[in-house]
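2024-03-11 09:14:02 INFO receiving multi-entity request
2024-03-11 09:14:02 INFO entity count = two
2024-03-11 09:14:03 INFO echoing inputs for audit
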Amino acid sequence: MLFRLAIRNISRNRRRSIMTASLVAMGSLALLLFGAFTTYIFAGIETGLVQRGGHLTVYRQGYFLFGPGNPAAYGIDDHEALIRSFRDDPVLKDMINVITPTQALVGIAGNFSSGTSASKTFFGIGLVGAAREQMRQWNDYGSGQPYVPDDRLSDPNASRGVIGRGVARMLGLCAALKVPDCPAPEPKQQVISTAPPLDPALADLAREDLGSQPAANSGPQIQLLSATADGAPNIVSLDVAGVDTQPVKELDDNYVAMPLTLAQQLVYGRGEHKVTGIVLQLHHTAQVPAARARLLQLIAERHLPLEVRDYRELNPFFVQVVGLFSLIFLFLALIMVVIVLFAVVNTMTMNVLERTAEIGTVRAMGVRRASVRRLFLAEGAVLGALGATLGVVAAFILIAVINHSGLRWTPPGNTDAIPFQLAWPTRPILLLGTWLGLVLVATLATLPPANRAAKSRIVDALRHV
Amino acid sequence: MSEIATSPVVRLDHVARVYHTGSVSVPAIRDISLEIRPRVFCVIVGPSGSGKTTLLNMIGCIDVPDSGRVEVRGEDVLRLTDNALADFRARTIGYVFQSFNLIPVLSAYENVEYPLLLLNVPADDRRRRTMAMLEAVGLADQAKQRPNELSGGQKQRVAIARALVKEPALVLADEPTANLDSTTGTAITDLMRQMQESFHTSFIFSTHDPRLMAQADQTFSIRDGMLV
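2024-03-11 09:21:47 INFO inference complete, emitting structure
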């Protein structure tokens, strides 16, 4: 009876109730659309990060803070046995999608071919090609770009790799690699150096290394110089198979990816080939806490000098994006709450005023004050539920329209434009949270007028015209 | 005959009520004491502003006196809490208002059924009693009509049915024929008298209507807040 009466009461002044419900619906729609947008952004960025760097990385202790300056000093001993033990662990094996070693390195890259003499510092990464390809296919949220096979870092060719677009530009390789929109240096600037000048003896060594390469190699080739773990200079040649544009310019200007074996050869020479990281890509991001806990347990049990970092720690940019969007969402929610609050308070105050004599009548008939209060609260809740439900329906329709409209954009962290696809706002915290939140706000907004109605004196209420 | 059946249904003892408007105090009821017998057609008469409605509000437990004692069916109503008083009204007192005061979003049937819902009467019993009451006031075929679809006389019949459906000890009516034409007013007066006799309940009216006065078993005249 309570809700039947509430529904009939809010339909008395249809125009007013529709306006109020529409404002609640607008609030619901705005929150769900923005929630869907942020979900899509988070999923897109996370997918890119996990495809490139996995969920968890095991490093030698201290690497996270100090290792990037001298990766060679933070090699993990006997990494193959360690990877086997992780892969075969009964707890981890069901969670792991890919487990693969990586080797980070820094050095100087030079292009000394065809009379060019250009060099620059680089940040390199040694990868297992097959594992990289498997990792690129991870798409837990269905929000990643369609997988396109890339064999430029194939395992059989141990000297082939890719470089950042910025590296290609600075080493004068854009024309050779057919990179569009990549300016070549002026002829007078043919001799380029953004790195410290190469020792003449090392440059000669590089030219010798260049001269020793097979003649069949048709692509451009660069020389990579780095210090080995023992501190001796070492140099290798890399066949540049193409450009892999990085989302951040600083990284793009320094990025060189190569097969793991080549990176190890450069860093460790004839010594023991170690790795700087063991990357684990899990089937689902939700498994990160459990997998991390298990890894730490195994490391502690074996007293290994290792540490575990997740993709959020390794990519503070992602955490900042999540924080920024969450803050914007909260701000938007606050605005919506205020709008709904004022709209419902106004409507219900009018309703109470118009029905003062009626309140007196039912109170005279024996209705308790609390029941009067409950009736008005039920009306607020019905208004809120009606508006919030309309907003949910409108949000789903609008998302379907947007997703089929063919819009494209370049999200943060991406290099190419992708289809603009909003995520369906089906996460319970978003969908139910928005719906229940707005119903609650509408109900609470009714409290002051409902209290006024409940507290009115019967004889005064009956006299009200 | 039991004591409750013979003792007064309403007893007022030195009741007084003063209204305060700003710095002005207006005495509405001055030291009134009266007893109303059970199962009577009782009329309170007096000119406008004499205090009839205030007196009726005291008897109906919707207003409280500044001094004195109000007993309804032997219950000292001034000692009841707000909730207990609401429950007491729901069980014991029916109201018929001058402006009918039906709930506009409810049909005639639902308006009559409403007091039974407050008393948690089971659905079957509720249906039977509501329909019986609508038949008694001659509106069984108008059960589904909303108040705005009824004439003034029909609305007042629904109001009478609503007041009587819970079989209260007391029905209060504040000038129930004031908003009706003379023919309808006479019909309503006859209906109320007939219902009072059928239900063995007490009806207390405030009125100027000589037709109602003519029907009265007990009459109180009030002037300037005092019985005369």
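2024-03-11 09:21:48 INFO post-check: Chain B has a mean pLDDT of 91.
2024-03-11 09:21:48 INFO post-check: The helical segments of chain B are 3-6, 52-59, 82-92, 108-118, 123-136, 152-164, 182-199, 210-215.
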